[in-house]
């Protein structure tokens, strides 16, 4: 097989990143982006390796019976919803397979799958947060763009650092969000306001972040710029509030960092109190209110977050005498959600603002049995008596756990560990290390679809102590 060669191939699967996979008669693997299982396609080989090849889709000869017409005008260019053209039942099955493959192949567990991926209550307009980027580097393959247009506000093109698709309508967040997006683009483009460049490290506009409270109808607009221009930002604020009175708070955050990361060093609150409040209802019917500040982490699918936390609570099998350690606790979302069932919860997190939010959330809900500690997780586990706790829940970032943390957990005598992850591959890697010393074994596994139309999946795993 050579680069540039045209082949005809049947797509039989998707890999964990949602890329179509086919096999030749010699069982050689070929990856073809923008294809689905069941597609018979013509593809052009673009890269050849020792055990696989990559190819560009040229034509779909026979479409998959699972292929559907995508809603979004930006589908296929924007990196947001890579499998929106895959019917939802098959999306769920794909995500089950991603989890199962990770546990069996990466974790090397003798796992017998019996877990259907929990479907999302909503498959469109489900996100409570969207982050849009400003750029003067447009994706010109979009038919709505032209070489003369140098102003974009939207989402990234996969594989490109700075190129942005000028999003006109996104089906992930509400129609109000789309209205804010388009109004913001028009306002600043009409005034010829500069866009921050990572090449020159100059320019004004950086990010637009929109956060919505699904349960409480609160709406935050956070514009991130490189400096504070009081006159311009007040004019923008007044325009926003005139056309979109549903906005409950507006913030102008300032970031002077050279890297394009939507985290600010300073915040100017120009309307409202700079926060929104979201609510989740526990299995016992108790409502927990969460104060969300601009940099707070909160699960982006509110309704499915309730289901995710209920599954985690069920896996932990709580007793009123339990002392629970919540690692990577963020703003205390899980700690507070489970507090009603246990004796006490200690949350550990490294981010200052998250710990402050966690204490505030506990106080606002009148919860007395939660404490929060700012610490590196590894340092905390090495310096504290982990066996003061009988159960652990953890929800780390996508990169997973540090190997030393896995090693520490593998030597504990905890009654139960529940591990939540948005990356089944790193989760399976960590589970393998935790279980390799023979103190723990794999229990229940439950994939949860937090992100419909994307290849991402959340997964909850129960670890049980081995019987000696």
Would you write up a description of this structure?
- The chain is of the alpha/beta class and about 475 residues long.
- It has 3 domains: about 5-60, Nucleic acid-binding proteins (OB fold (Dihydrolipoamide Acetyltransferase, E2P), Beta Barrel); about 95-120 and about 295-465, Vaccinia Virus protein VP39 (Rossmann fold); about 130-275, OB fold (Dihydrolipoamide Acetyltransferase, E2P) (Beta Barrel).
- Helices cover about 25% and strands about 30% of the residues.
- It is built from 9 helices and 21 strands.
- The protein has helices spanning about 90-105, 175-190, 230-245, 300-315, 335-340, 350-365, 375-385, 405-410, 425-435, and strands at about 5-15, 20-25, 30, 40-50, 50-60, 130-135, 150-155, 165, 205-210, 220-225, 250-255, 265-270, 275-280, 285-290, 325, 345-350, 370-375, 390-395, 415-420, 440-450, 460-465.
- The strands form 4 sheets. It has a 7-stranded mixed sheet, covered by helices on one side.
- α1 (about 90-105) runs parallel beside α9 and α8 packs across α9 (about 425-435).
- The longest helix has 19 residues, at about 90-105.
- The N and C termini lie far apart (about 55 Å).
- The model has no long low-confidence stretch (mean pLDDT about 90).
Summarize the structure in short:
This protein has 468 residues and is of the alpha/beta class. It is 24% helix and 29% strand.
Full CATH superfamily name of the largest domain: Vaccinia Virus protein VP39
The CATH architecture term of the largest domain is 3-Layer(aba) Sandwich
Q: How much strand content do the residues show?
A: 25-35%
Mean of residue pLDDT values: 92
Are there runs of 5+ residues with pLDDT below 50, and where?
Answer: none
| Helix content percent band | 10-25%
* Main sheet: strand order: 8-7-6-9-10-11-12
Give the overall shape: globular
